[in-house]
């Protein structure tokens, strides 16, 4: 009975909201397709930290079709039970090639996505991604054919036009052609800051009768929640925010080493993983720390094995922990909201800096390094001030050595009371407790274990969920109704 039920279920292709509800399990926290970055290990890490749905990196339909190695390396060898629901993304500009490639991929994923948003491809190949957004007839053909021929739904990831009306017609055209879910990258090239896509998300979502995911500069769980609340989209997709903080969807900003260690462990458990992906992930995770520890940045760029990458990551952790243990960490010069060893958004320098990127960044790096050393020196001198005060003052009469001008302790970022010595949030106990509770995090220095407790509870719940799910799937159809009701009641 179970087998018959499953095969019937598989034949009836779910559409739109049914697809989102049943196959995607109402996914609202989504990890974006990312070339060289949304590989299996990263997806698994992200899923363990709150992501509901992931996309493969964009695959080239033509290469996928002709190259069996490419298929194995990028999809077939990455099959993993934990890694569902999963959407495979292609770029393509030929309906037949696209369908042939998608047919070879459909048994390994829950939907096929067509990339209509990649601007770099214009320059490279001339006829993919965002370039296609002006070729509506061709797009209609590709989506219609995919909707007819594939056993899984077809979805699209689009960029907005300057003109919202045009974006809306575009979305409706794709829906009419058979697209079952739309991701809208709502940021035009000139827009910066969170939530800039809000108008287009809102309009598109209202204009179509399929689920919509919003994408573009979502960096905090609060952005996610606000976006869903204000625009009514079904989900929110993150790329850069996720790369810099894979626990973004948990609403946590964990220490970088926690994520780096866990990621490396996942990579070990799921070989082989292309080392250039691992290296790139570690560069992004450790971004802020590497601005300070230049020697390890070079090391990270140079080493050639997973174990040595892991070793560099470990050295970075030790440096951070030494810094924390010394307790004289002060980063008043830094504009970062958290210390450099905390996962946090990477805010890009404004465009005018980008045009002279190398120079400006180097200069910035040097200044930061310098200022940090000055800071450490002054902290040190504060301790031996009484002995050397006169001598120093005579050498540097303009400098203020008055001890009461210097903080004797590091202040809690929120209330100004002394912060916990090793507090991961840089807060005093009271503020830490509030934050850790809100974000369901641990702070071992303050003896707070909200995360550990929540995880234990979640593990227990998901075990129960899994039991119910198993019963549901393998019961005769007449009892399904009952089981589903049970599940709904349980979830409510
Ligand atoms: C490293 C990287 C790789 C990306 N690769 C893809 C890709 O393969 N396919 C795609 O549709 N978009 C790709 N994008 C774009 C993202 O999916 C996303 O649309 C964009 O970064 C905006 O989201 P964000 O502000 O959350 O980063 C990539 C982005 C990054 C940062
Ligand atoms: C690793 O990925 C890079 C970038 O995509 C690619 O050029 C290289 O061939 C890959 N290496 C292996 C061993 O697959
Ligand atoms: C680990 O890295 C450190 C610092 O770069 C280096 O001195 C040490 O030899 C490395 N150890 C191993 C086992 O690779």
UniProtKB/TrEMBL annotation:
Domain DUS-like FMN-binding as annotated: residue spans: 31-309
UniProt-listed PROSITE patterns: UPF0034
Region listing for Disordered, in residue ranges: 386-405, 454-492
Organism of origin: Hippocampus comes
Major enzyme class: oxidoreductase
Record keyword DNA-binding present: no
GO cellular component, one term: cytoplasm
Composition bias, Basic and acidic residues: 454-472
Record carries keyword Cell inner membrane: no
EC number: 1.3.1.88
Stated name of the protein: tRNA-dihydrouridine(16/17) synthase [NAD(P)(+)]-like
């Amino acid at each position: 009975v179970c087998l018959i039920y499953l095969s019937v279920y598989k034949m009836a292709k779910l559409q739109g909201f049914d697809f989102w509800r049943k196959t995607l399990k109402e996914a609202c926290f989504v990890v974006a397709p990312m070339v060289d970055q949304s590989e299996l290990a990263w997806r698994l890490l992200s899923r363990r930290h709150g992501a509901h749905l992931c996309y493969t990196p964009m695959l080239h339909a033509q290469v996928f079709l002709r190259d069996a190695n490419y298929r194995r390396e990028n999809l077939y060898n990455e099959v993993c039970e934990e890694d569902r629901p999963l959407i495979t993304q292609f770029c393509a500009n030929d309906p037949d090639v696209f369908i042939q490639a998608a047919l070879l991929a459909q048994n390994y994923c829950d939907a096929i996505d067509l990339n209509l948003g990649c601007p770099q491809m214009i320059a490279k190949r001339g006829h993919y991604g965002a370039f296609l957004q002006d070729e509506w007839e061709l797009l209609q053909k590709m989506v219609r054919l995919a909707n007819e021929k594939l056993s899984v739904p077809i979805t699209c990831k689009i960029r907005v036009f300057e003109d919202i009306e045009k974006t809306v017609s575009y979305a409706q055209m794709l829906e009419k052609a058979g697209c079952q879910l739309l991701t809208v990258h709502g940021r035009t090239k000139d827009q910066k800051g969170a939530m800039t896509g809000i108008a287009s998300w809102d309009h598109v979502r209202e204009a179509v009768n399929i689920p919509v995911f919003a994408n573009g500069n979502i960096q905090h769980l609060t952005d996610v929640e606000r976006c869903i609340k204000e625009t009514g989209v079904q989900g929110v997709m993150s790329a850069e925010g996720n790369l810099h903080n894979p626990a973004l969807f948990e609403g946590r900003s964990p220490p970088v080493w926690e994520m780096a260690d866990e990621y490396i462990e996942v990579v070990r458990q799921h070989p082989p993983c292309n080392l250039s992906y691992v290296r790139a992930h570690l560069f992004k995770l450790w971004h802020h720390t590497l601005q300070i520890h230049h020697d390890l940045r070079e090391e990270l760029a140079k080493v050639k094995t997973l174990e040595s990458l892991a070793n560099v990551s470990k050295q970075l952790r030790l440096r951070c922990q030494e810094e924390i243990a010394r307790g004289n960490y002060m980063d008043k010069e830094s504009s970062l909201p958290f210390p450099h060893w905390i996962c946090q958004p990477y805010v890009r320098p404004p465009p005018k800096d980008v045009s002279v990127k190398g120079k400006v960044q180097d200069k910035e790096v040097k200044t930061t390094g310098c200022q940090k050393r000055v800071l450490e020196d002054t902290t040190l001198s504060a301790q031996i001030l009484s002995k050397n005060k006169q001598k120093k003052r005579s050498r540097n009469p303009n400098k203020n050595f008055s001890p009461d001008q210097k903080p004797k302790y590091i202040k809690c970022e929120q209330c100004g009371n002394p912060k916990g010595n090793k507090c991961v949030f840089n807060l005093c106990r009271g503020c830490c407790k509030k934050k850790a509770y809100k974000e369901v995090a641990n702070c071992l220095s303050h003896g707070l274990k909200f995360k550990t407790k929540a995880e234990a509870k979640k593990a227990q719940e998901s075990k129960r969920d899994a039991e119910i799910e198993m019963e549901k799937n393998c019961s005769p159809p007449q009892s399904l109704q009952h089981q589903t009701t049970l599940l709904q009641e349980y979830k409510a």
